[in-house]
Amino acid sequence: MSIAKLFVKVFGEDIFEQISTVEKQQPEDDDDEAGCSASQDTPKPPKLDEMKLPEQMVLVRNWLNERLNVIELNSVHAIKTQRVDMVSRLGPEQTICDIDFTSTVRISADRLSLRSQGSFNTIKANVCVYGGRWMYEVLLHSKGVMQIGWCSNKCTFNENSGVGDTKWSYGYDGSKQQIWHISTSKYGDKWQIGDIIGVIIDVETEKIEYFRNGHTMGVAFTKLERGPGISFFPAVSLGYNQGVQVNFGNMPFKYPVEGFLPIQPKPIVRLQKADLLLGYLVNLSSVLAHNPTCKKKDHIEGKISTKKTVYVVFTTLLIEKLTHVLFDPYVIEDKLLPHIINLCTTINATDKDPAIIPGTPESTLGALLSILWNYLENEEVKYVMRKLVNALLSIYTHTHTALDYGKQKNAITILTCICTHTQTRKTYLEYKFFKKHCLALLMYIRPPEYKYMQQLVPDPIVWTEGVGGPKQKYLAQVEKIAKATESLYNAQKNLLILLLTNTDGDELAPSSRKIFISKLRRYVMDLSMEQRPFHSFFLMQSSIMHPMDSTVALSFICILIDATKLLFERELPAATVEVRPEYFFDGTFEYQHFDRVGGVLSHLRKVHRNDISTHLGAERAHELLEEDRTMMRVGELVDPSMFLTTTNLNNCHSRRAGRSCCHLYTFLQSAFESCARSIAW
């Protein structure tokens, strides 16, 4: 493909056609002396056919620079208007939570997600306002005692007083449905995990108002305390183990309120440039996906064919410009994510082949992800991928209405398309899914709100085994809930099975399944209440910020077992799905420090030594007993992945395949026992 044809497909214009038109309009050379002298004084522009590739690329680069410069010129007025509107804002351009590391609040790297480890901690932003109309949003990670609102620069807080407990601060607590300003009064709705609380202030009219999931709860405060030198900071107070994620405008608001500005200025120029460049990059990805040299039979995962030099040059040019604007969370969520969603939902119109799965090398999405992995640094791509999954997780965990799980299903479907790309999938398994309960939360279906459940299953139709009640009416409502969540559960299970792919590994790189099991094992180790202080003190690498809710843990284990059973049926249809009792005491399975129903393994081996000798022989039983005696706690520092081996179930002997599946199945059974016991306690 010539550079002129590729330019039209990628950029939608033809600058080379203009050159050809100019050539045709130029008069032929005359033989007279005047014509000769004129041609010698004025050099002719080179013809298109005579231009070499570097010269053509100079034209393309200049054209693209001109388009980007036009965006900057057209944005001057909008930027000036934004600065005028934000004249009453004081502080740095980037708005974050102002906290030092001596506090008992755990804070994320971007300084926007908070979880309190103290009795009552107060955190405020590093920016204040003294006039105008402003807002910020808070995503609730818990639903306990928290006070959210505004405080002035004169406020001082401690473990006993938070936002709203002083004369110069104003707070709302949705767990108690109260507002606080020295005294307290009834206000608002009872909040739930996943709610987004909008907090607005109009300094001129002296009004503070709160919104829950886009719906106003009414004016909370009027007649604010004002005076010379008084300004207002966004602030939150958190009870023990309570957590939130604050958005000051660092990312697009989920429920913007008309007429109110974000605390952090919107990156106007970066957004427009990113939208333009990403559109061009998607067009180029579509060309690469349809290029015969990139078809599956000639494709190596993670590699883009470089036989066509113009492809590489165009991609390099676009990536060079994109790196200046891409690494902004606002840009990733507002521009990159919609492009990816479009590639997932309009696959037929984009790739013209319904058989092509989004995320595979033959798809536009797969080509786009491969471009990012090949032309950006690994750490840069990891950053972008983390922000993408954070945005999808925020959508998934957001409160749903009644039994409408449409947004949650779409988020899982989009993530499945992204994870179809092998390198992206392995990166998520290695660095993201087992951090801060990410995958567990994605596998949890949150029940409807309590008010709706009261309407759906009122007390008169509740039925309990052995107690009585209208059983048929009760089961009919239960079936209604099951049908509403069925499609979401199937989408979750499809994602989980994709993450357990066992055919994408080789001698140099482990398969997705092997990474999954290794990370899952370490994840359960970190979740152990007994070992968390040990890891935190000695290793400082625990992936757990806070304990997992029992309902989330149980849901995660149940869907893992369900997916494992399905894999047995697919990969070992003739094998009997069973786990021999000897597996738990003959040394095959390495428990490490996992809690077990019935007692510690070394204790059980002593108590049941005679039974073990009968099954394994006296010599092997003695060896196991000696191993228990010499086992030191520090031995748990060994990388757990060395104890977990998986094999390709499609290409190996059934006995080895069965052993691989048993590693996963018995590990899940052991984890399920531990989880069930913790819930019972």
UniProtKB/TrEMBL annotation:
Keywords (A to Z) from UniProt: Metal-binding, Zinc, Zinc-finger
GO process annotations (BP): proteolysis involved in protein catabolic process
UniProt-listed Pfam families: SPRY
Record carries keyword Transmembrane helix: no
Segments forming domain B30.2/SPRY: 74-253
InterPro entries according to UniProt: B30.2/SPRY, B30.2/SPRY_sf, ConA-like_dom_sf, RNF123/RKP/RSPRY1, SPRY_dom
Keyword Protease in record: no
Protein name: E3 ubiquitin-protein ligase RNF123
Source organism: Bactrocera dorsalis
Gene name in the database record: RN123
